[in-house]
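Re-run requested by the PI after the first attempt was lost when the workstation crashed. Everything re-entered from the original request form. Ligand of interest: guanosine-5'-diphosphate.
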Amino acid sequence: MKVHNVEMIMSAVKTEQYPKEGYPEFALAGRSNVGKSSFINKMIGRKSLARTSSKPGKTQTLNFYKIEEQLFFVDVPGYGYAKISKSTSAKFGPMIDEYLVSRNELRAVIQIVDLRHPPSAEDCNMYDFLVNYEIPAIVIATKADKIPRGKYEKHKKIVRDRLQMRVDDPLIVFSAEKGIGMDEAWKEIEGRM
Ligand code: GDP
């Protein structure tokens, strides 16, 4: 998708503030600093619409980005600082958990991981949460520009194995720096709209 028009809706703190358009929604999740804001900005062709490196301990809000009057990206707080215990317990706090579990418009969670490193325990917990609630995932392995192309497959396998990914969930190698994986990511999203 070639994005021309993006509207940053709001920082929603309660259900009544969620958009009412009924457009398909794709929630973005990833541990802090993994490159989630850079992914969003690259995908929507903006330099810095999504805040980069959101600070820990801030109010937990959902930021909705309305794209081309067709869909929403929903930015959820980075989970690196949140204390995560069991895969079925609160990940971000009750509001965001509830959004992920019961939002009708949610088509998939786009989970961002770092292609360079095996997914962390928090990444695995997040993915388990999606499995437990039968929420489809699109896994984006970003910062691909930091490793040689010849090593992609090896690193992809580590990500797939460690997350124990479901066969139907795609894993896409990405780089916000180089634009790698953009078309593939859009194709996956558009295929689920
Ligand atoms: P967030 O906290 O998950 O939103 O992470 P950011 O998008 O703010 O990125 C964290 C850091 O990683 C920043 O210094 C980015 O410049 C860097 N970064 C993000 N994506 C990439 C990428 O694809 N390649 C490289 N080399 N650096 C990246």
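Saved to the shared folder this time. The longest strand covers residues 106-114.
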